[in-house]
Amino acid sequence: MLFVVGAARSGTTALQTALNASDDVFLLGEANFFRENLKRGFRARYNARHQVFGFPPSKQNDCPAVAPESGTWVDTVAGLLAQHRLVGETIAFGAFEPDQWVSEFLAFQRRYFPAAAYILAFRNPRDAILSPTDTWGVQELTPWAKSYIEATRGLIRLRRDFPRTVPVFLEAIEPATVLAIERCLDCPMPQFSALMFSRAESARDPESIPPELREAMAELERLYPLLRAAVESLAGSDSRGALDAIDAELAGVLRRLDANPLILRANLALGATRPAAVATLSQLSHPVSQRRMLFVVGGAHSGTTELQTALNASDDVFLLGEANFFREGLRPGFRARYWERHRALTHPPSKQTDCPAVAPESGTWVETVAALLAQHRLVGEKVDFGAIEAGQWVSDFLAFHQRHFRSAAYILAFRNPRDTILSPPDTWGVQQLAPWTESYIAATRGLIRLRRDFPRTVPVFLEAIESATVLAIERCLECPMPRLSALMFSRAEPPRDRESIPPELREAMAELERLYPLLRAAVESFVGSDSTGALDAIDAELAEVQRRLDTNQLIRRANLALGEMRSATVATLAQLSEPENQRRMLFVVGAARSGTTELRTALNASGDVFLLGEANFFREDLRPGFRARYNARHRAFGFPPGKQNDCPAVAPESGTWVETVAGLLAQHRLVGEKIAFGASDPGQWVSEFLVFQRRYFPAAAYILAFRNPRDAILSSATTWGVQELTPWARSYIEATRGLIRLRRDFPRTVPVFLETIEPATVLAIERCLDCPMPQFSALMFSRAASPPDPGRIPAELRETMT
Questions:
Q1: Using one digit for the tens of pLDDT, what is the confidence trace for 425-457?
Q2: Beta strands 749-753 and 701-706: pairing type?
Q3: What phi, psi does 663 have (nearest 5°)?
Q4: Fewer Cβ atoms within 10 A, N terminus or C terminus of the chain?
Q5: 253 and 287 share a domain?
Q6: Is the whole-model pTM more than 0.70?
Q7: In what order do the strands lie in the sheet with 701-706?
């Protein structure tokens, strides 16, 4: 794997082009694997992004069809590696959240690609930072100065901590540079020198540097030759100290930039810094325009939708629903994306969910808002913080609004914690409420900050909407709302029912209910510094409730996006979790190479049974397209189609694992999967599996596959040629500990020791499953433990193996 990394305008594209001139190399351009997760349709998304920029198709910006169209970046990279010697991407950190991007990139690469090759692109600060003005007409350069600093600090960490790095300074590309790259890649690059040239540093012109950046630029220019010397001479601990010292100085420059009152902090995505859009965003951020912006903000199920509907009843107002401007960047095609999202949630077209065609289809949210402001007095959106990454979303929202819309009007939607948190089960059938508790806390803390730090806020408590509430909204908006009272009603808090609260949340709920009246009093009486103390104290208590939730071992933090919690799917999952259906669920569980595949084959020989192979329901969430994903994964391993590795079409192609299991249960008596814990994050996988199964399938049947440690651990070497066996020893231990918990805590388990499969074993399985297995004995045999041979065990594992 090969990665070219640097700040924007530092030569990464030129390096990509020069390296891609070799048929041995295929570098994608800013594919951003580290932010892709495992989203399907990677190729179409990548190519569409590059087509938007008007680039002609080429190796630099076009991803060939080397994997299924539904594939992820992983499938694409695997396909490219089958054709090329070196595969990877260029990464250029631009003006959009560079600190976050650099941090995420380093964590991802350290985890998955620490031994990859990295070409580090350096360029002098003046030319790198001033280049966006010449290239794209960017006027606000502070974000680019920050991104330059963050990217440089990231390059320092790569150089210091990763073993295979080659620094390339754009001002000094010499034969020695090419030789260093060839040695690092262990691959000749005959065309590189003909395509990659040094770029001399431009003549210094103080007038070209904006006044607010001159002090920072002087510091960066002083540090650049020191940085180059330290980077090029890195050989051990001596120059690590020099790099760390430069990193600390760069951090100081960044801090001083943040404290510079002359600087406007923009939030501009590189691919979208079109002068017209940027100019429009500047107009929207003007104090006069800000006063015409309106936002309704709260936790999910706190009354934000009702407030949006009531406010939208006025022709003076147009509030979009969860457009999430703060996460949009300046991506083109905003309207189509917004419309598609609401259509996927089956919302009927209305002012609440439909964005009119007031701007070009290729436009961003900025053009849409500007056009709506030409037709309406007040424009904005309602923002709901749900169960997915609520803390991050609240943080991003506050930073964005502090920067662009501090003088806008904010309607803050509050609701009592019990009704807010318990509402998702009634609405969507959600069973796992810990994420909704966390999102309630995060949203409430965000509302406290809005109330405390933003000048134009109106708190609305859903239990107490009165004439004074409507009057406060009208005064804040300087706009009459004659229909608001007719559409927005109080919702009385229902009687308390302790049994409706999951046991693991009762302590947290009691704390939140104690705090709610105190919160209301502090929020409503807020006039300045006196009640800031009260709000801060409540915020600190909410943070403490969150910390206790984080340490609660009963709670699994789910990763279910609201848009994926389709009512039908959730209802089906609830049915699968009913006791009578749980008894028809069957799971074969063990460490890799412990006999799980043989057990599954023997059980699948019965027409009454259908066990999928490592479908990993517990990691699927409710993602659509389960069958295609499952079958593609098994085909990638070259397995022939069959009951062991092929999922039949028993549910819609867009369905989740839930619909597939329900479809299989309509045809078979027992349905489930086999799970084999391998060398990738076994501790995490075992933990997530146990929590998921305890929540949804505690009454299912579990066949527990045990095997002696020597044969299980060493089998990876003989089967797949694995040389490094320590991860497999760890996974064996983690899996065995998981089996102990299953045996101890779950009522229907049958242990199967691969060395001693006897008639009594078969009988125990049949009794547990309440189902005869006539072919099982003919297909499942004992495997005698191999004779001890200390020479086969790696030296570092002998003590552990004993």
A1: 655 555 577 888 989 999 999 999 999 999 999
A2: parallel
A3: -65, -40
A4: C
A5: no
A6: no
A7: 609-613, 670-677, 585-591, 701-706, 749-753
